[in-house]
Amino acid sequence: MAETAARERAVGGVAVILACGLLRTPYAKTAHGLIRGPSRYRVAAVVDRDCAGADAGQILDGRSRGIPVVASLRDALDLGPPAPDHCVVGVATAGGRWPAPLHGELRAAAAAGLTLVNGLHQQLADDPELVRLAAAAGGRLLDLRRPRPARELRYWTGEALSLTCPRVAVLGTDCAVGKRTTCTLLREALRARGWKAEMIYTGQTGWLQGIAHGFILDATLNDFVPGELEGAVLACARDTAPDVILIEGQSSLRNPSGPCGAEILLSAGARGVILQHAPARRVFEGLETLGLSIPSLKEEMALIRLLGARVWAVTLSHEGLTPEQAEAARLRLGKDLGVPVATPLLEGVERVADAVEARLEAGPP
C-alpha cells in the first residue's frame, strides 16, 4: 500500500536505517539526524557496508549510542529482538535519486514485509517491483516527498505577519551545513532555560524525527510554499502558545541550484536569524565543477538585513577542520562580524541561546 506522509498516523516502531556507503558523508544527513535524535522510530541498526561492525554514534561524532552498523538488511533482521518493522532511507542525494546500492536493500525490505519510508524525490510507489513485493508481504510504502495536490494546499493570507510570537529562522550559507541540527539543539537549550521553544520542520528528516509542526518544502508546489509555511507557523502558535518559534531553513538564499530562505523571512515573518556556515567550504555543495563560490558571511548578513531581518548569531559546521582550526575560525569570525559565533557540535549552542534569550527578554524592537 503506497501512502504519503500526510496519511501516516502511527508514530513509533523499530527502524533499520539505510545509509548505502554514505554514512561518513553529508549525504547521510537523514541517518545522522535519526542517530542523534530525536526520532519517531527506535533505531535498531544502520546498514552501511563500509562502516559495518562499528557503533553508528561513534562513526558520527565519537559518542556510542548502542546502534550497530551492519553490512546488509539481512544482517539487521538477524540481530534479534526487537524486530524492525520499518526500513528508512537515510540518505539525501543531489536531485533526490536513489544511490545504486539502495534498490537491492529496498527489495529485501519490501519482501520482508517492512514499512518502507523514503524521503527522496524518486518514489517507492513508482517502482512496480517494490509495489508487488510489498503487496505480497503485507508491507507499506511511504513516500514523504510525494507532492500533495493543489486542492489540499494552503495559499498565503498574511495572517502569520500579525502573530506576536517571535520567529527565528535558522538559515545557512549552503545546503547540508547543519541547519536542522542547530535548530533542534537550540530548541532544547532554550527549553532547558525555561523558554517554551517550538520548531517548524521544512524537510523530510524533521518529519522523521517526530517534530509536530511543519511541511516538506521541496515537495510542495511553489505557489503554495508561503501558505503551507504560514499554516505550520499558525498551527504551532495555536497548539502550543510558544515563547519563540524556530524555523528550519533549507539550502541557502543564493545557492543557484535551489535558492531558498526568503519565504521564511518574508512570508513567515521571522525577524531573527541564526546563520549556519561551513568555513572550510569554498564553493556550493555539489556544484564544485562550476566553481560557484559561497558568498561571504558579511554579504549574506547584509542581504538578510535587506529582507527585513537581523542575524543574531552565527553557527559553524566544523567539517574539514580540526577542533583547533574550528576554534580559530570561530574567534576570527566573532571579531570580524560583531555577533556571537559558536560551533554547535564541538561546544554546544549556549552562546546562541544567550543571544536569543537576550533578544526575547528585550521584547519587540
Structure description:
This protein starts with a strand and ends with a helix. The chain has 365 residues and is of the alpha/beta class. Helix 11 links the parallel strand 13 and strand 14. About 2% of the residues have low confidence. It has a seven-stranded parallel beta sheet, with helices on both faces. It has a seven-stranded parallel beta sheet with strand order 10-9-11-8-12-13-14, sandwiched between helices. Helix 4 runs parallel beside helix 5. It is globular.
Short description:
Helices cover 33% and strands 17% of the residues.
Fold blueprint:
Elements (H helix, E strand, L loop, with lengths): L1 E3 L9 E5 L10 H8 L5 E6 L8 H6 L7 E2 L2 H5 L8 E4 L12 H10 L3 E4 L9 H10 L2 E4 L23 E6 L6 H14 L4 E5 L2 H5 L4 E2 L10 H16 L3 E5 L13 H5 L5 E6 L19 H10 L3 E7 L6 H15 L3 E2 L1 H4 L2 H13 L3
Uncertain segments: 5-10
Helix content: 25-40%
> How many whole angstroms does the radius of gyration measure?
20 Å
Mean pLDDT: 94
Beta-strand residue fraction: 15-25%
Shape estimate: globular
Summarize the main sheet: 7 strands, parallel
Beta strand count: 14
Distinct helical segment count = 13
Structural class: alpha/beta
Quaternary state, please?
single chain
**Order of strands in the sheet with most strands:** 1-7-6-5-2-3-4
Cα distance, first to last residue? 51 Å
